[in-house]
Amino acid sequence: MWFFRKNRWQLVTLLSFLSWQAVAQAPENSVLYKGTDIGVKLLVFVLLGLFLAYIIKIIISLSQVGGTLLKKISFKVDKNQISGLTADQIDIMLKIVTKTPGPAPAVKIILPALIIWLWPHFSNAQTTVQAATRENILTQPGVLITFVLLFIPLLAGFLLLISKISTLLKKYQRSKIQVELQSIADNLGNEMFYEEVSVLSDRKKALLFQLSQNELAGENIASDEKGLLNNIKIQHGTDIFPVKKKPIPRPKIDPKLTQLILAFIASAVLWLVIGTTIGEYVGIKFVAPDADAISWLSFGRLRPVHTNLVFWGWATLGMLGLGYYVVPMVGNGKLYNIKMGWASLHLINLSHVLGTVSLMAGINNGGGEYREYIWPIMLLFAIGLGLSTTNYLKTIAQRKTKEIYISNWYISAAVIFLPIIALVSYLPFWQNGIGEVILQGFYMHQAVGLWFMMFCLGLLYYFLPQQFNKPIYSYSLGVLAFWTQILFYTLIGTHHFVFSALPWWLQTTAIVGSVGMLIPVTSGTINFLMTFKGGWDKVTNSYSLPFFLVGVIYYFTGSYQGTAEAFRSTNLIWHFTDFTIAHSHITMYGIISFIIFAGIYAIVPRLTGKEPPQIMVGAHFWLALIGLQFYTIPLMIGGTLKGLSWGDARPFIESVVLMGPYWLWRAIGGSMMWLSHLVLAYNLYKMVYPSEEFTVKEEVFKILKQKADLNTPLIKTDHEPI
Amino acid sequence: MNLFNDHKKLFWASSALFVLLMLFVAIMPAINNQLNNAPLPGSMLMTADEEAGKKIYISEGCVGCHSQQVRNVEMDKVWGSRPGIAADYAGMHRISFWQNTATLMGTERTGPDLTNIGQRQPSKEWHLLHLFNPRAVVAESIMPSYAWLFEDKDLADSLDVIITVPEKFKAGRKSVIVASQEALQLVAYLKSLSQVPLPDGTAKPEFLYQTSKKEGETAPAADNGPDGAALYASNCQSCHQPTGEGLKGAFPPLKGSEIVLNENPQDLVNIIMNGYDAREEYAVMPAVGKNNNLKPQEIAAIMNHERTSWGNNAKKVTAQEVEKFLAAIQKQNAVQ
């Protein structure tokens, strides 16, 4: 209670500010207050309760200070206690110097008070703007999230206040203890005997003992007589572009398999460049609709060309190419049949040439997304894919290991599922009327989740452990994610048609499945990030790990975003808008493409023994990553505004006009992504056909060797000829 | 079951789970819907031209930007008078040996929904000009121009449909611009798109998430009425233009128009409500009011916007007056 007497004025100021804040907030926030009265009241009560509890705790602890605390501190000089003292402390004891405590520092109460005083101003300014916009806004999830975000600084301010009070009280405690300490120190000096002083001096000497630092090396100058050191780096200092680690040479891969893998990857990159060139052009048309008036280049015809090429051309071939490396590798066996692989590649490439030409000519399957190729062309693709499926499954069957590694679970499931999905979605028996829409939802989402995502997860389960040279964090989590991925992903197709004429129960099933997806996504993310744990230093000196890291992060955020979009309430704002486009690029690019980029940089140098120029890998990474931000963030903002504009029943054309700037940003981001693909193509070229490296040292030694061969020996030496 | 070591068991187990779920969420519901839905009694079979037009709509990839579904949510009310139901799509079958069924529901609305476009915009001339260059009628539009669906002719045949293109959008063409057969078929298809009314006695499915009006809101609304400029933009602007000047040879100007400025605006109410086709030199005006279910206060707001903008200066009308005019018009029509 003494505390209150001494600091009563500060406390009174504090409390008056607090109460003033409560009074000031109530009337100005009345709209907000009415809408969420129970929640807000509860929150205020909880906070006040916490605050009071804390104050009471402090008071109780203060009342105990005088008695118990000092007992812990009082001690006598004996041998056991001396071993706990440092040399400096002993020195001080020897000198028996005691200092009187200075005056207690002035109590700092201005800052917390200022924060409390300013807080209503900040919070009022923010809440009044929002509350004015609409009646039902408080129930919208986005707004609720915003409130949570607003609450965070409030909580931070509250915690800061508590910590300030806490320091204040601790200082007071100290000042009391200081008095007692003074008396202990005085006693120490007075009670010192001669023997004790000598013990202390010995101890001090022992503590100050130091080695001479050359006990092992001796006085001789170092020399490398066995030739153990090579290429010692003499220059020191920071590199602007840190040197990345060279890939460790792996057991030789069959050169024929190497060729097949490289052909897959090269085809993939070719389709990526073509597909995104088209995508880029299509994106520009949003800003400049009269760029051309040629039927083959019109928006409606080029859009599916872009999506099909990046889906079935780039991502599919890229994954299959990496799969041809991973599937035999984790089974410790050989690929079942290399020729089958080539046939698969040729058929898929052929399907894209024909598909692209036919789509541009205006021949398509009827408008369902990602199944725009007519069935004869898709059949070529499916046969090509089926060949790879057979090849993979037979390779797994003839593996040398007893167990099937988790990568091959995912990859085998993916290659089994996609042919089934394609077949079911192209067969005509269940496609009349609304049946077509049900199949469309099923098709487009299974292709994404049970083909691209499933396959890429399989790749991650191989590449992450390989890159870190340690096992995956948890095999069981991988298995859990595997089964839940199949269970939930298969259900969610219809969430693209929420509020449509499709059966309501089917829409609900899809939404529930979308929430269920949090299980495989969370377990997968934990698994990958825990594998990263302890190896973060490796990320900076590897050129494929940063790509993997981005892939894993987007796996988490992209998938969670997908779940959030599936709710009925969010569908109201975001469905039909450009938000969906942003989401599809976050997932197909941020997750799938980044994992394939990473895989390419991880294995191609191992296959060819040649590395890409480091600075260009960096350029690829940053252009792709920054480009993706410029692409997606504006579209998400614009998409939300568009949805709100529709909700407000504004004329439709307004929603087109308001998107203008966001479409421009998308084109800018898209250009950066496109540029990064050109860099990737260059890097791939460099990894496969590097230019003859010209180094002075090697050239000089070449000439010397020629001379040495001509007239042996120039000078007689004891050394071996170079 | 040793999934870890036996690849056959693993492959079969994962496939079985997947196929089972697929049957449950895709194939069975699809077949079920196919068997249990029939086209509505009021729906009409497509003509050959409309059918051909739909194929052009498909091959041009219009579905990439235009949906054809009215969802059962309040904000979709502008696209149709009732939410879409499975029966609306029931009559759709495989298009050809090469192509799948096309319900064209779509997943994007970069452009407006077209479920009911035939009722909302029945003017052939407007559609043709819009296809030739959308910016000729809607300045802010980003839709592609479909100029290749039109032909240049030095002299038009008697059967040719000539479109009057504003000079700015002719791109230097001196000749006559004539709609090709494909363009006409595509427009025929667009005009055929309209919601079929539900059979009598069938309860309309409701629009969800209705914006309930609260007491605080109705009071100022009574003073100001609906936003006339916004309603004009939604219902009239694509023909009569934001400037009120119309388009020469296609859509008449409202600026300085006698009908608009008339002391007794009964004709104006009649035209907005029931359409107009009396002047050779202009396109047919659709029954905008009827088609879009405009209420008297909305019509009054549009009229007041037209009567007081672009230099027009006529007396404002009230919703009550419009109601009176509507009653008079109905009486007149009944007599005829």
TrEMBL record, chain A:
GO cellular component, one term: membrane
Membrane-spanning segments: 40-62, 142-162, 260-279, 309-330, 342-361, 373-393, 405-430, 442-463, 472-492, 504-530, 542-561, 581-603, 615-637, 663-685
InterPro entries: Cyt_c_oxase-like_su1_dom (IPR023616), Cyt_c_oxase-like_su1_sf (IPR036927), Cyt_C_Oxase_1 (IPR000883)
Signal peptide interval: 1-24
One Pfam family in the UniProt entry: COX1
Gene3D superfamilies reported for this sequence: Cytochrome c oxidase-like, subunit I domain
Gene Ontology MF terms: cytochrome-c oxidase activity; heme binding
Keyword tags: Electron transport, Membrane, Respiratory chain, Signal, Transmembrane, Transmembrane helix, Transport
SUPFAM superfamilies: Cytochrome c oxidase subunit I-like
PROSITE patterns given in the database record: COX1
Domain (Cytochrome oxidase subunit I profile): residue spans on this chain: 255-722
GO terms, biological process: aerobic respiration; electron transport coupled proton transport; respiratory electron transport chain
PANTHER family documented for this protein: CYTOCHROME C OXIDASE SUBUNIT 1, CYTOCHROME C OXIDASE SUBUNIT 1 HOMOLOG, BACTEROID
Official protein name in the record: Cytochrome oxidase subunit I
Originating species: Dyadobacter psychrotolerans
Automatic annotation (TrEMBL), chain B:
Keyword Transmembrane helix: yes
Keywords: Heme, Iron, Membrane, Metal-binding, Transmembrane, Transmembrane helix
Transmembrane segments: 12-31
Matching InterPro entries: Cyt_c-like_dom, Cyt_c-like_dom_sf, Cyt_c_oxidase_monohaem-su/FixO, Cytochrome_c-type_DH
Any one GO molecular function term: electron transfer activity
Gene3D superfamilies, per the entry: Cytochrome c-like domain (1.10.760.10)
Keyword Metal-binding: yes
Name recorded for this polypeptide: C-type cytochrome
